[in-house]
Structures are given as structure tokens and as C-alpha cells.
Amino acid sequence: MWADGTPPTGGYAIAAYIIAAVILLGYSFILYRRGSKAP
Amino acid sequence: MTLKTRGRAITLLGLLLLGIVYVRAIWFTPVERLQGGAQKIFYVHVPAAWSTMLAFSLVGLASILYLLMKDDRYDRFAAASAEVGTAFACVMLTTGPLWAKPIWGTWWTWDARLTSTLFLFFLFIGYLLLRGAIPEAGTRARYSAVLGIFGAALVPFIHLTVYLFRTLHPQPIVLKPSAPSLPGEMLATLLFSFLTFTVLYVGFVTQRYAMGAGDDHVG
Amino acid sequence: MGALLRDALVIARKDLALEVRTKTGLVSALVFTALVLTVFNFGRDPTAVAALDLAPSILWVTFTFAAVLSLNRAFQLELENQALEGLLVSPIDRRSLYLGKLFANLVFVGLVEAVGLPLFALFFNVPILHVLLPLAALIAVATVGFVAVGTLLSALVIRVRFAELMLPVLLLPFLIPPLVGAVQVTSRLLAGRPLSEVSGWLRLLLAYDIVFVSLAGLLFPATVDE
Predict the structure, then answer these.
(1) So what's the ipTM on this one?
(2) End-to-end Cα spacing for chain B
(3) What are chain B's domains?
(4) What residues of chain A, 13 to 32, have a C-beta less than 8 Å from chain B?
(5) Considering the entire predicted model, what is its pTM?
(6) pLDDT tens across C120-166, in order?
(7) pLDDT tens digits for B24-75?
(8) CA distance, residue B37 to nearest chain C CA (Å)
(9) In whole angstroms, what is the distance from residue B145 CA to residue B66 CA?
(10) Cα separations in angstroms, A38 against B206, B208, C17
(11) Residues B36, A27: C-beta atoms closer than 8 Å
(12) Contact at CB, B164 and C215, closer than 8 angstroms
């Protein structure tokens, strides 16, 4: 518990933010690569 | 500027905005008292759900328009929206359990939002699989449109099913901040995130649509 | 309207005649149903869970599998007999085509269910005679939903590779609402509770049938015309 009483659940948030970023950045990258390869 | 380049520009903008959302959510938005840090997943999870819904509705709409007008552009748009929707659904379905675990103590919960998104995910995958399995462009467009419309018709039934089910099995009261009653700073972050995810949707679909012209390959 | 139905019945009769001639389809479906019920029985611990608690789910999952199997066999028959091409050349209303296929599939699945239900009652020692009529009505309503959507989706996958796998992948999400509704109502019926408790679910089932039969009839021409 933090001093003000909020539970220490931040780890989940960090994991979620990272995964979301990976998916969105990853998809952006995939689209970019496919766009560069297309005739 | 070609459509592809424009799409890339919009996507880049979206990613920049996403960065801003992240910074704002993590450092400049207050921590919610009862849920702690995990509540911040909300700022990514809910807009992702919104983008998924948006993508799906537009697939349905484009499907109807395609069957009515027989304009290939609607078909291309539907294909693009389905793929993008799948990506957002993945975000939603990964962040959802990560939020559910610390708050409800369980990785999965059959609440309305997660369940609907799971179904949308299945429908998207089915849609994309069907498209991949039909080499002939005209048939593919028609069949996808039929599936798209069918899928759209299913969604209200999913909602109804979840609603009836939950009336039977009430879930424990959940400490989920809903948009209207959020304190100012949290609401601002959320709304900004909605904007960001919409921009990302537009950027992704524009790019994918631009690439769709050369789509006549066997999946 | 009359011509629509008449043509539909002709098509249905043709499909069923094919079925009767070969017989293997029906026999396989019946055996499959019996086997699934058997597996369910051995898959549970009778001392831990009362049959009546699980019974509705077991019944409906079995019926769902049987329906998917039946639909698969329906279009296999189609492919083998080139029947579809022949029909498309004729000036038959496309909606009759859909209705005809729907009828034929309903008869087939209905037969499987008619055998499956008593088997289920036997294997799991579930008394059903006192609610047989409402139960049969429920099964009919839910099955119409399953088969309506399944018949249309089979038309989509008919020429696709791995069609036997594609059909369930596309179909199963659509079957969840009627499946859940059917389980809930069956559970109330078997427990002897009044149906008023499940009026919401009954309305869902009926709405589902109306919406999807209409939609399928509307969209079926798009699956067969050029």
C-alpha cells in the first residue's frame, strides 16, 4: 500500500502500456514495410 | 501526396499523440484511489475498444454499401477496416485481462465490453480468413460483404445475451470509473486518448486501403 | 408467395431424396451424436456434479456439434452432385433456393435431434416426458436459428479450401446467442420452473430466428448470383 492508501497495482499498468505500444507500433511498422514493398 | 503517404503521415501523428497520452496518463493524471496504478490501463483499454467498435461498424456499413452499389472501393475499405479492427481488438483483449486481474482478481471476466470485443475479434478473424480463402476478387467481395452484414446483425444479440446473462448472475459491484463522472483531469486524458485512437484508426485504414489495390493474391 | 414455398419444397425434397439414397450421412450424424453424449458422460464426475446441473449444457453442445456436422454434410452433397449449378441455370427464385435448403437441413437436423433427445434422457437419467412438448418447441425454435445461419454460411464456404474447418469457424460465434438462450430455457424447463422466468431468453430466440431467417433470405442471392 502506498502511504495514501492506494494499492500497488502499477506493475499491471506498465505491462499493459508496453503491450499496447508494442501492438500499435508493431502494426504501424508492418504497414510501413508492406507499403514500401508493394509495386 | 499519395494516399499511402497521407496514411503514413496520419499514422505518425497518431503515434506521436499516443506518446503524449502515455506521458500524460502516467505522470500527469492522478492515481485512482481504490484501484491504484492499474486503473490507468483504462486510458488505453477503453479507446481501443472504441476503435474496435468503430472499425467493425464501418465494415458492416461498407458491406451494405458494396452490395447496393457494387463499388469495389467499399470492398477495399471493408478489408482495410477489418484488419485494423483486429489490431485494436488485440490491444483491447490484452489490456483487458491485465486490468481485470488486479481489480477483480481474475484474468478474464465475461462482462459486456470484453465479451463483445472477443466476439468482434472472432468475427474479424473469420472475415479475414474467408477473404484469404477466395482468390477471385468479385466473389470475395460479395461473400465478404454478406459475412460483414451478418456479423453486424449479430452484435445486438451478443449485447442482449450478455445483459440477460448478467441479470441472472450479477457480477460483484465493480469500481470502474465511467466517463461522465470522472474528475476533470482523468476525463481530459480519456478524451484525448479517444482522439488519439481515432487518428490511429484513420491512419492505419488509409494506409491499408491504399495498399488494397494489389489485393488479388491467394491468401 | 405460394410459388416461393412450392419451389422451396421441391428443392427440399430433392435434397432429402439424395440423402435417403445414400443414408450414410444420417447414420454418421446419429452415431456422432450418441458418441458425443457418451464422451460427456465419461468426462464428468457423477459424484461431484449432479446430472441435472450440467444436463442443459450437454444437450445443447451436442446438438450444436450435430448441427455443424449436418451442415457440412449438406454442402458436401452439393459439391458431389453438382446440384447447385443445375439449379442456378433454372429460373427459380433465389429465395426459394435458400428456403428449400433450409427446409432440407431442418428436416435432417430435426431427425438427429429427435433421436438425440431420448438418448440424452436415457444416458443422463433426465426425466423429460413431463415437459416434452415445451422442450420440443424450444428445440425447434433454437434449431431454426442455428440452421438458418448455418445454411447461408455454408453457401459462402462451398468452394473454399478447408471448408469443413471454415464453416465452424465462421458459424460458431453466430450460434452463441441462441445456444445460451436454449440452455437457459432448457434448464428452467427441466427444473420445473415457470417459463415466465425466461421470457427474456425466449424473446431473444424468437427475435434471432426472425432476424436471421429474413436476413439470410435477403442476402442468399448475393452468394449464388454473379
Answers:
(1) 0.88
(2) 30
(3) 3-214 (1.20.120)
(4) 13-17, 19-21, 23-25, 27-28, 31-32
(5) 0.88
(6) 999 888 888 888 999 999 999 999 999 999 999 988 888 787 888 89
(7) 888 877 777 666 777 788 889 999 998 999 999 999 999 999 999 999 999 9
(8) 35
(9) 7
(10) 15, 11, 52
(11) no
(12) no
